[in-house]
Amino acid sequence: MGKSSRQSKSKALRRRSPSTPVEVEKKPAQKESVAAIPPEVSRRMVRRILVFSGIPSGLGLSSFFVNYYLLTNHVVALPPYFTLAESLTLFGLGFLGISYGVFSASWDPEPGSLLGIGEFRRNLGNVIQQWRESAARSSESSDSGEV
Predict the structure, then answer these.
(1) What is the 3-state secondary structure (H, E, C) of the chain?
(2) Sign of CA pseudo-dihedral 84, 85, 91, 92
(3) What digits encode the pLDDT tens for the residues 10-23?
(4) How confident is the model over 82-125, as pLDDT tens digits?
């Protein structure tokens, strides 16, 4: 595509007939969301996810190398399924660690406990309660819409 064809296209785009409507995309006003996660809570969640998910996942990766070393150097005779079961367990714990990291973090501005067991119970209870209320509202709205 030559320079002259680019210039003619740009001039053609600039020239519009007065009858051609120009659509202007309207953006909604930027409002601070009530449900936004505060930055300190978000950082707390990420730290907990890294710990509760990263450690088991790292161990799951290292288990392949450790088991390979143990088998090749005849330190221990491991059954063939052992590495599979071990890595599945550790990666599964890492997967669960993602959820535990989010739910065990204190959702209040002040930090909670070290392991977050109390926060986990409270936050999971809040989420379940919101799900139930949402399901009740949706069933009520679908029931009222029936003829």
Answers:
(1) CCHHHHHHHHHHHHCCCCCCCCCCCCCCCCCCCCCCCCHHHHHHHHHHHHHHHHHHHHHHHHHHHHHHHHHHCCCCCCCHHHHHHHHHHHHHHHHHHHHHHHHHCCCCCCCCCCCCHHHHHHHHHHHHHHHHHHHHHHHHHHHHCCC
(2) positive
(3) 554 455 555 555 55
(4) 999 999 999 999 999 999 999 999 888 888 888 899 999 999 99
Q: Which two tokens stand for residue 143?
A: 């029931």
24 phi, psi to nearest 5 deg? -110, 125
Report the share of the chain in percent with pLDDT over 90.
54
Domain-by-domain residue ranges, the chain? 37-135
Whole-model pTM: value is 0.63
Q: How far, rounded to the nearest angstrom, does the alpha carbon of residue 42 sit from its chain's CA centroid?
A: 11
Amino acid at 36: A
